[in-house]
Specification:
Layout lengths: L7 E13 L2 E7 L3 H4 L5 E4 L8 E9 L7 E6 L4 H7 L6 E8 L11 E7 L6 H10 L3 E8 L8 H7 L2 E6 L6 E2 L2 H12 L3 E6 L1 H14 L2 E6 L14 E5 L5 E5 L6 E3 L9
Parallel strand pairs: 7-8, 7-11, 8-9, 9-10, 11-12
Antiparallel strand pairs: 1-2, 1-6, 2-5, 3-4, 3-6, 4-5, 12-15, 13-14
Helix pairs in contact: 5-6
Length: about 270
């Protein structure tokens, strides 16, 4: 049987919710979404009282549970929309569209990979690490955050990768500093052929730059507001350089969120 493809729009249910540090982890049923998921995909969730939906990174999928296939998402309650989502209790019904976006491309051969993530946006790197390990790749993982409360799954990271580096800007756990402070050394030490990054723009830019200096490929999962998530509204412009060398603007939700790091016009983001 061929695997199902393309996004679906479904009514999901919150089957578990927990607070971990500064973040809220939700486990959702969303029939058809886990079966179609690839690392780097996201879902768009409708929020009561809001026209724009909220895009959430998929942190983990489970093929089977007491509720059937489920997916885990991580969010930081910043504005009214994410605060509403974070407050949803077990049993709440939510409208979900997904999986959306261009996922990470996997190497055809077993190569050395460095995965660099910051904050809750590091979520897609965890299922990516699993796929890479299945292909025999050597996986080194960097998890960073401003402080310990906003580190995502640092303990889980040690089960996902050959080596793990923890960075916090305030030095509360792991090494002190930002990704930009350490990434050149981390690329060199891991002997990375491919660098994958997920997080704020500064983190992505630093990782892509370090990869380019080391002669490695890079792929970045762009973190930006996507009002519809499906490409219809053109509300998530991403400036890039095309294969033909011509500057253009693409949709982060459709042509992204994962793009080659050396194709992004970082000064225009």
């Amino acid at each position: 049987m061929p695997e199902p493809t393309g996004p679906v729009h479904v009514e999901g249910e919150v089957v578990a919710t927990k607070r971990v540090g500064a973040y809220r982890h939700l486990t959702l049923t969303a029939p058809g979404v886990p079966e179609r998921f690839r690392a780097g995909n996201f879902v768009a969730v409708s929020v009561a009282g809001h026209v724009a939906r909220r895009a959430l990174w998929i942190h983990r999928v489970r093929a089977s549970s007491a509720f059937g296939p489920t997916l885990d998402v991580v969010l930081e309650a910043r504005g009214s929309g994410t605060q509403w989502l974070a407050a949803q209790p077990v049993g709440a019904r939510v409208a979900i569209t997904g999986p959306l976006g261009r996922p990470f491309a996997l190497p055809k051969e077993a190569v050395s990979c460095l995965l660099v993530g910051e904050g809750y946006a590091a979520a897609p790197l965890f299922p990516l690490a699993e796929r890479l390990r299945e292909r025999g790749c050597a996986v080194s993982l960097v998890v960073s955050a401003p402080d310990e409360s906003r580190l995502l799954s640092a303990l889980e990271a040690r089960r996902s990768a050959r080596s793990v580096t923890v960075l916090t800007a305030d030095g509360s756990v792991g090494q002190r500093g930002s990704v930009a402070d350490h990434v050149d050394d981390l690329v060199r030490r891991s002997d990375a052929d491919v660098v994958y990054a997920a997080g704020p723009t500064d983190t992505l830019r630093a990782a892509a730059g370090a990869a380019e200096r080391a002669g490695a490929w890079s792929q970045v999962a762009v973190e930006t507001a996507v009002p519809c998530g499906t490409g219809l509204c053109h509300g998530c412009p991403l400036p890039v350089v095309g294969e033909d060398g011509v500057d253009r603007v693409v949709r982060a939700c459709a042509e992204g969120p994962v793009v080659r790091g050396d194709r992004v016009r970082w000064d225009a983001v």
